[in-house]
Amino acid sequence: MSESLAKGKSDRITNENDDDEPATKKSKSEDSASKPTTTKSHQNHLMYIENPVSVKEFITKKLGCEDGTDSMHFTYEETLYQPMEKAPSVSRDISTKYLAPTLDGVTLSAGGSDCSGYAVVICDGDDKGDGGGLPKKERLFEALGLTGAVMEERKISMDELEIEAKDFKNFPFFQYTEDTCDLDDIEDEDIKAHQKITDVLVQHLTHHFKFDFGWPEIEDDPYAEPIAAAPILCGGRASDGNIVAVV
Questions:
Q1: What is the DSSP letter of 221?
Q2: What is the largest CA-CA distance in the chain?
Q3: Could you tell me if 215 and 226 are in contact, meaning their C-beta atoms sit under 8 angstroms apart?
Q4: Do the Cβ atoms of 36 and 156 come closer than 8 Å?
Q5: Confidence check: pLDDT of 35 > 50
Q6: pLDDT in tens, 40-78
Q7: How many other C-beta atoms are found inside a 10 Å radius of the C-beta of residue 182?
Q8: Range in 35-39, 40-44, 122-126, 197-201 the model is least confident about
Q9: pLDDT at 141
Q10: Does the pLDDT of residue 226 top 60, yes or no?
Q11: What residue spans of 131-208 are helical by DSSP H?
Q12: What's the CA gap between 230 and 232, in Å, rounded?
């Protein structure tokens, strides 16, 4: 699932190298503070998914964050995601038996774009149950297989990414809230389809969250615009402490 956040624009994120990056030399501390960093603290750090493909293909093709501008891009790990059959058994069963079937054939609305959703598992637990709390955004960024993100020659910092605790119980569209989505404008079939997805998240997971690529106002860059298209994750923790989510 991807989210289009641009103000009325159809810009897309590219994966091209930024050959025009200014030659100004930065200190190591300055450079490391300006971009998302990942820890590789998990041996199996990439997410598990059915029929795994490369990180680049999944982000650009399946999620629809395709090439379209020369001013924004992600950088990726050059590898495949992990196969779902190797995921921790408790989280895997929730993903394959309950969540994935509800996503089959459903078009998810995500901001200014519509797309398919995919059930994924992310290792983030140590068999201590649901005590892990809200996942860290660094961990989710890492699990997506991203190594960096750039817009207008400026590296996007981890501070500009957002993770928010969610309560999915009271609204059928897990990716929205009642204040941001008018059900009167939506077909009954779409509401029912989304409700089934939301019910799985509520019944089988705790510590629900939404992770996306926001664009907070920055004092020294008043003209900064939202990222045009980027992955979002909505999910929670399974009883084994790992993460199950819709991406």
A1: B
A2: 56
A3: yes
A4: yes
A5: no
A6: 545 578 999 999 999 989 988 888 776 545 445 788 899
A7: 9
A8: 35-39
A9: 93
A10: no
A11: 137-143, 188-204
A12: 7
Q: Which of these, 131, 128, 177, 136, lies nearest to 42 by C-alpha position?
A: 136
The amino acid that residue 69 corresponds to is T
Residue 208 C-alpha from the chain's centroid: 14
Using a cut of 0.85, tell me whether the model's pTM lies above it.
Answer: no
Amino acid in the structure at residue 99 = L
User: In degrees, to the nearest 5, what angle opens at C-alpha 205 toward C-alphas 201 and 211?
Assistant: 70
Length of the chain: 247
Pairwise CA distance, residues 70 & 49, whole Å: 30
Token match 């509520």: residue?
202
β-pair partners for 233: 211
- Separation of alpha carbons 141 and 38, rounded Å: 8
- 160: amino acid identity, one letter: E
- Whether the Cβ atoms of residue 94 and residue 242 lie closer than 8 Å to each other: no
**In terms of Cα–Cα distance, which of 175, 199, 177, 172 is closest to 187?**
172
Which sign does the torsion angle of CA 233, 235, 241, 242 carry? Answer: negative
pLDDT in tens, 113-145: 677 889 999 999 655 544 478 999 999 999 999
The owner of tokens 């289009």 is 4
